[in-house]
């Protein structure tokens, strides 16, 4: 049983940030009911690639959840939402600010039904401020926060991160905020609203950059494959591939120079005496290092680094990463059996507990797969459920209904 067993969550979010948050909470044992549009459901269901018509994007971040397809614009649909909200501990939504109020499912409305509710709103720019009315997207946030101005090579076109860092970052930020509010509720009985901004969640990550800017006004520039502060801490070219080497302190640098590259004279070289000097002369240093490393394959140098206690590793593609023996040994790749997709792998949980379990039990649901089951749990009769299905207030796959 997971540590959040007993916690009930309504997930009225879609695409990535909110669903990632609720997936993490579901993995930790919370009971997550996903509320989807009757027509099309979560928008990520329309994002390929597909297997047998089912989106594998949706599949990856909606496991361990139940789905009810619900028309929230209808009076009867809203009443169903209210009944679910009365029993919930947490609600997560990522509508543009103002939409939940127009639908009648906003925090102030729900609080009248359930004073202890924890209501988490995830939006592009937050619920207040001059940009709150704008729609927010991961790439826009990457540009606005300065991330793209420091990603890529000097003088090149601004580059985005390889993954949706702010979508996932907002989901993670929402997760720890919800857990903090949940602890507060357990202690006091009081719920509250949580306001998460996609465009804000990444700013606290710029620690070194903030240190330099607030100290002397330094504007961080793109550093390509190199670290912003330490050297050598970067991608290094070997005979057959690039590899990562991280000399984050003086002792590691000394081991790298003497035991790995066998260049003890570098310890007396005035250009390389300190980390700051090495960083100032990083291009010269890199050239001298690669004159040596180009002579042998990356695996040779990684092995030597490991023997010397110097952090190093390969630069894997994604296929190599998910088949890495270490990740496999720690259950970071798991397999689920979906009724339409069939057997398919998912990324596991990076959280390991000594006394409780993180369980990946069920695949992402079909659209409205659990509509009838959920309605019965809150007291709806079979006749009432049939009426709601006929009127299109709720939806359920024919195979499940049959």
From TrEMBL:
Keyword Glycosyltransferase: no
Gene3D superfamilies membership: Crotonobetainyl-coa:carnitine coa-transferase, domain 1, formyl-coa transferase, domain 3
InterPro entries for this protein: CoA-transferase_III_domain, CoA-Trfase_fam_III, CoA-Trfase_III_dom3_sf, CoA-Trfase_III_dom_1_sf
Pfam families on file: CoA_transf_3 (PF02515)
SUPFAM superfamilies: CoA-transferase family III (CaiB/BaiF) (SSF89796)
Keyword line: Transferase
GO molecular function: CoA-transferase activity
Name under which the protein is recorded: CoA-transferase
Organism of derivation: Mesobacillus campisalis
């Amino acid at each position: 049983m997971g540590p959040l067993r007993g916690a009930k969550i309504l997930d009225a979010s879609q695409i990535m940030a909110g669903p990632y948050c609720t997936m993490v909470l579901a993995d930790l044992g919370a009971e997550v009911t996903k509320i989807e549009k009757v027509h099309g459901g979560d928008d990520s269901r329309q994002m390929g690639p597909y297997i047998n018509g089912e989106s594998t994007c949706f599949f990856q971040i909606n496991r361990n959840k139940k789905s009810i397809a619900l028309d929230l614009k209808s009076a009867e649909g809203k009443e169903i939402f209210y009944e679910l909200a009365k029993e919930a501990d947490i609600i997560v939504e990522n509508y543009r600010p103002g939409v939940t109020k127009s639908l009648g499912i906003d925090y102030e409305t729900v609080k009248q039904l359930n004073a202890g509710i924890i209501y988490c709103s995830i939006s592009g720019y937050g619920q207040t401020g001059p940009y709150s009315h704008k729609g927010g997207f991961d790439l826009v946030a990457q540009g606005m926060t300065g991330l793209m101005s420091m990603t890529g090579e000097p003088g090149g076109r601004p580059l985005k991160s390889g993954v949706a860092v702010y979508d996932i970052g907002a989901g993670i930020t929402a997760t720890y905020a919800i857990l903090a509010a949940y602890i507060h509720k357990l202690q006091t009985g009081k719920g509250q609203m949580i306001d998460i901004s996609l465009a804000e969640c990444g700013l606290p990550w710029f620690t070194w950059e903030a240190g330099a800017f607030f100290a002397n006004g330094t504007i961080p520039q793109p550093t390509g494959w190199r670290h912003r502060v330490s050297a050598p801490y970067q991608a290094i070219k070997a005979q057959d591939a690039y590899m990562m080497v991280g000399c984050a302190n003086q002792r590691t640098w000394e081991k790298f120079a003497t035991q790995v590259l066998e260049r003890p004279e570098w310890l007396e070289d005035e250009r390389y005496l300190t980390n700051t000097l090495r960083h100032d002369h990083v291009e010269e240093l890199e050239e001298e290092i690669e004159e040596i490393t180009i002579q042998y394959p990356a695996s040779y140098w990684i092995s030597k680094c490991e023997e010397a206690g110097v952090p190093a590793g390969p630069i894997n593609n994604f296929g190599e990463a998910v088949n890495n023996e270490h990740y496999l040994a720690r259950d970071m790749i798991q397999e689920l059996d979906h009724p339409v997709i069939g057997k398919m792998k998912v990324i596991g949980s990076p959280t390991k507990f000594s006394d409780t379990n993180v369980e990946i039990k069920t695949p992402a649901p079909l659209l409205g797969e659990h509509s009838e089951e959920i309605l019965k749990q809150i007291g709806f009769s079979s006749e009432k459920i049939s009426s709601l299905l006929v009127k299109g207030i709720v939806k359920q796959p024919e195979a499940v209904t049959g």
